[in-house]
Amino acid sequence: MKLQELREMDEKELAEKIEELKAELRQVVSEIGKGGMVENPMRKRELRKEIARAYTVLTEKRRQKK
């Protein structure tokens, strides 16, 4: 997801997106932990970065409100 798309979301949508990404990350991590084959091993890194981007945008929005 691009940064511009995240910035267009409101706080509620961002929080939902973060939870969605976290759930997907948990699934990928558990698959890796089980020793199973993961379709895209780099997905774990991508998810962590997307979550960090979303948190950054959420923090920016909360600071602008003050």
From TrEMBL:
Gene Ontology cellular component list: ribonucleoprotein complex; ribosome
Pfam families: Ribosomal_L29
Keyword Ribonucleoprotein: yes
One Gene Ontology term from the biological process aspect of the record: translation
Record-linked InterPro entries: Ribosomal_uL29 (IPR001854), Ribosomal_uL29_sf (IPR036049)
Keywords: Coiled coil, Ribonucleoprotein, Ribosomal protein
One Gene Ontology molecular-function label: structural constituent of ribosome
Any coiled-coil regions, as ranges: 7-64
Family to which this protein belongs: Belongs to the universal ribosomal protein uL29 family.
Protein name (database record): Large ribosomal subunit protein uL29
